[in-house]
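Could you join me in thinking about how sequence relates to backbone shape in a protein? Would you write everything just below, so we can both look at the same thing?
***
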Amino acid sequence: MGTLRAVIPLVDLFTALREELPTYAGPSFPELGEDSAPCIVIELMATEEEPEWRPGFYLLKKEPVHFEDGLLEFSKET
């Protein structure tokens, strides 16, 4: 299993996600089994003030390669 790590401003993350909304997984990194479907884990730091989002970890049911494609498309637009 590979890992893609991207550190981007929250406003840019919302733009890159388009209309997909991640699910809150809690304050700790989620435990995922080896047989879990590929997904994206997003960490929202407590220092990032966004009233509609709680600090912690979020899961996006999307394969990392598709998320990476979205980030690349976003970077071309900016």
In short: Residues 45 and 55 are 5 Å apart (CA to CA). The chain has one domain: 10-77.
